[in-house]
């Protein structure tokens, strides 16, 4: 007697949306919204229903590949990273006082510009390039200042000060070639770094100042102040330390 075959139980797919025709009424409404609003809506949906987060990405890829209207707004290639993009948009929507901005990449940018970007050039070419490098480093500093307003969180201010200290140390330790030496000369006159640090500390409460000095930042800043005297740069760092 043949053994009866058992039927495989169908997976429960109730509630999980499937790619299908797009209702133009809703599509026009959605596409009229700002991109950040769309991203936040998707992020909220993914948070509320984690089981469909992957489906959201899949639907966007499907829709962008099938419907020109959607593709014009959201390329299919973005569908797979939509959850990450939504999370970023949601973070950006937070008040500045609740965001924590990490500025460390600016210290790496400054280091590369001074030490590696033009390393293969001859001395005379490095000299000509040094003025642009000086501008790039100052640009990193001014970007940090712009993104660290008075209402910024303690974490943002701490990251800004730590990154500025790293940039200062890079300038001091990079005088071995033409570009490093010329950038050092530039900061013998330019006080953008110290002025930016001073301005950020001014925006901190006394409690925040005490907190940052409890770590190793204070010791490292004192070391930078001493080191900078050997190269006659950042002469106003003592004023920053006094304010802390």
Keywords for this entry:
13 helices, 0% strand
Tell me what the structure shows:
The protein is mostly helical and 244 residues long. 65% of the residues lie in helices and 0% in strands. The chain has 13 helices and no strands. The protein has helices at residues 24-31, 35-48, 53-66, 68-73, 82-92, 104-115, 123-146, 154-173, 178-187, 192-202, 206-214, 217-229, 237-243. The longest helix is centred in the middle third of the chain and has 24 residues, at 123-146.
Quick structural summary:
The protein has 244 residues and is mainly α.
Structural class: mainly alpha
Q: In total, how many beta strands?
A: 0
Rg (C-alpha, Å):
26 Å
Helix amount: 55-70%
Our count of helices gives 13
Percentage of residues in strands: under 5%
Task: Choose one word for the global shape.
Answer: globular
Task: Provide the residue-averaged pLDDT.
Answer: 79
- The parts where pLDDT drops under 50 for at least 5 residues are 8-19, 76-80
Instruction: Report the end-to-end length measured between terminal Cα atoms.
Output: 89 Å
């Amino acid at each position: 007697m043949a053994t009866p075959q058992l039927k495989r139980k169908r997976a429960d797919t109730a509630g999980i949306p499937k790619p299908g025709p797009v209702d133009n009424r809703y599509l026009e409404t959605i596409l009229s919204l700002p991109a950040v609003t769309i991203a936040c809506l998707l992020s909220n949906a993914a948070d509320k229903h984690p089981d469909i987060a992957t489906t959201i990405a899949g639907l966007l890829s499907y829709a962008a590949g099938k419907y020109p209207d959607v593709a014009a707004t959201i390329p299919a290639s973005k569908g797979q990273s939509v959850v990450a993009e939504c999370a970023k948009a949601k973070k950006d929507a937070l008040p500045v006082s609740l965001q924590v901005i990490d500025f460390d990449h600016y210290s790496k940018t400054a280091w590369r510009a001074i030490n590696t970007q033009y390393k293969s050039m001859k001395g005379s070419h490095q000299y000509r390039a040094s003025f642009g490098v000086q501008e790039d480093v100052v640009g990193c500093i001014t970007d940090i200042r712009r993104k660290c307003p008075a209402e910024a969180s303690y974490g943002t201010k701490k990251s800004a000060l730590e990154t500025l200290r790293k940039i200062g140390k890079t300038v001091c330790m990079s005088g071995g070639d033409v570009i490093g030496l010329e950038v050092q000369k530039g900061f013998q006159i330019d006080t953008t770094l110290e002025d930016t640090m001073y301005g950020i500390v001014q925006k901190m409460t006394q409690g925040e100042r005490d907190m940052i000095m409890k770590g190793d930042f204070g010791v490292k800043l004192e070391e930078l102040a001493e080191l900078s005297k050997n190269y006659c740069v950042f002469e106003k760092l003592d004023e920053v330390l006094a304010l802390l």
